[in-house]
Amino acid sequence: MHEMSVAQNIFDIVRKNIPEESEEKVVKIHLKVGELSGVVPDSLSFCIDIIKDESNFKNVFIEIEQVPITAHCQLCGKTSQLEFGVFFCPNCQSTNIKLLTGRELDIVDIELND
Amino acid sequence: MIEGEYMSVITIERKILAKNDEIAQQNRELFQKNKVFVFNLVSSPGSGKTSILERTLEHIQNKINVAVIEGDVQTDFDAQRIAKYNVPVVQIVTRGGCHLDALLIQDALKKISLQNIRMLIIENVGNLVCPANYDLGEAMKVLIVSTTEGDDKPLKYPGMFLNATALIINKIDLIPYVNCNISHLKQNALQINPRLKIFETSCTTGAGIYEWCSWILSQIQK
Q1: What is the DSSP string of A15-73?
Q2: Is B90 helix (H, G, I), strand (E, B) or coil?
Q3: Closest CA relative to residue A45, chosen from A62, A69, A68
Q4: pTM, whole model, 2 decimals?
């Protein structure tokens, strides 16, 4: 739902990190989107395409790395991957868990064709 | 890669919403400087945010000075309801935007004199997804879920439940008429966030409002 403003933020950050007037040289933007981030990767790609078409970022390809939810169990000490909507340790069923990953909404790096 | 072409990689490693987080931090510092306790009221549309706000104002406005920021997609209906309580209120109309962000709050704060305020309540746009991602500079998020929404909301919208400090289960007077098992609702919420402080309220009968208000007032000192 808020993917459009997220997409705008992505291009703002990229612009600040590249030399002036080199938008056309950007060929890849690498993102990390966690399963709990509240952002739907397909919608984000769709919004990015809309902005891209109206900007100088004509050659950019978006790589979205989806990050699963992982948690560390404070009781049995095991680190496990959790399914969406299941918030207990799959090993010992304890709810005393600490989330490690899944909330990412990060821009990792960009590639320029020099 | 085509021969003769060179690629360069620029490492960024930055949160996409970092700009919002920076402004939220400025808001937070402003609140701390003026000793204003701020909470962000979030829920689906129609869970009773404005009604809870009205009942809350009735209970606490003679104890402390309160101001309200109202967020809505359209109309200032909510601000009109709150203005009847003679508290400072600013309406933000997002015109389609599905959440409030820190910059909108920063702008709204220009219309409130924080020196005379002890508590600021921000009523977010009704939405259980997007507002979870946007820090506004508040001390805590208070989440409302009503019994008419069913007991599985926590499992469907875990992001919001993870970020909330307190959960108000509203419209408990309607339990006999709706398909909502309140112990399942609590169990689901606590499974996602075992630290949630839970209240059960009805804005129609007034049930639970005193308990909720006593608790939120006690949070000001912390």
Answers
A1: HHTS-TT-GGGEEEEEEEEETTSS--HHHHHHHHHHHHHTSS-TT-EEEEEEE-EEEEE
A2: strand
A3: A62
A4: 0.90
Closest residue of B to A89, CA-based?
Answer: B191
Per-residue confidence in pLDDT tens, chain A, 114 aa: 689 989 999 999 999 999 998 999 999 999 999 999 989 999 999 999 999 988 999 999 999 999 999 999 999 999 999 998 888 999 999 988 999 999 999 999 999 998
Q: Which residues of B touch A26 (CB under 8 A)?
A: none
Q: What does residue B120 show for φ and ψ, rounded to 5 degrees?
A: -120, 125
Tokens matching residue B60: 């606490």
Q: Would you state the structure tokens that stand for residue B24, as one six-digit string?
A: 């939220």
* ipTM rounded to 2 decimals: 0.88
Instruction: Work out the widest C-alpha separation in chain B, in whole angstroms.
Output: 76
Closest by Cβ to A95, choosing from B98, B158, B191: B191
Residues of A in Cβ contact (< 8 Å) with B22: none
List of residues 6+ apart from B114 with CB closer than 8 A: B30, B31, B34, B36, B67, B120
> In angstroms, rounded to a whole number, what is the distance separating the alpha carbons of residues B34 and B160?
28
In whole angstroms, what is the distance from residue B193 CA to residue B126 CA?
21
Angle formed at CA A61 by CA A103 and CA A107, multiple of 5 degrees: 30
Output the CA angle A78-A84-A87, nearest 5 degrees: 45
Closest by Cβ to A38, choosing from B19, B130, B155: B130
Task: Judge contact between B17 and B136, C-beta under 8 A.
Answer: no
Give the integer Cα–Cα distance in Å for A111 and A113.
7
The alpha-carbon gap from A10 to the nearest alpha carbon of chain B, in Å, equals: 6
